[in-house]
Protein: MBL fold metallo-hydrolase
Organism: Xaviernesmea rhizosphaerae
Amino acid sequence: MGGVAQSFGPFSVRRLMDGVFEAPVADLRHLGGSGPLAAFTAGVAGSTLPMDVNCFLLRSAEGLTLVDAGCGSAWGARYGHARAAMKEAGIDPGDIDRVLITHLHGDHALGLIESESAYFPRAEIVIPARDFAFFTDEAQRAAVPAARRGGFDVAARVRRAYGDRIRLVGEGAVTEGIVLLPLPGHTPGQAGYRLGSGENALVIIGDALHLAEAQAADPDLGFIYDVDPVIAGDTRRRLLGEAAEQGWALAGGHLPGILRARATEGRFVLTAV
Ligand SMILES: [Zn+2]
């Protein structure tokens, strides 16, 4: 349940697979409308697109860091396997020093909680300030369609469970060797976390991309899960361009492993590292 460790900067990084989400093809949208959407879906066999649900375990001189926390027990027995993977690796919840959250959706942050209490008894919880501000704003909750309201309850529960162990962060350095990159759109304050630099850098991108191949080829393709689909498309294009130029490797909440972006013939391609 999780790959071998790979090194980026001072970090050894291991992907922990929490489960597999079957995303309904009916949840896809395209910024260009129904024509380009139909062109894509015509090539999809079946009514769902399976995607991994991932979080990441980092080891360094600074201790043990998780990036995202999976679903925990919140989404039933098909999810929450990241906890078992950590146990198998001999890691106790109390061993985790900090958890960096990319955005406040359940499949990334509910693993922080068990029975409304903190699952990680000692960890500092690092959350992008902009995402926390959005998902704790009752006026925003009322303004967002019901299907996109999940983050508001997640934020309230995380706040109750962790209180002053939450540290809100903005763009730039968040902890030794880790830099926050704003990746808005999927949620207003979604963040990527960059470890290391240049060709030895890895950016963990949350849900800036859900589908590696399809969204690299066409960044205007997205899911209804994006709170602001136009900004999400802009972010995908900008991120892929920068990753291709800088040589960054990318990993995400739903990507199949660690990938590298390349620009070729006017489009992007993601290939396994
Ligand atoms: Zn997600």
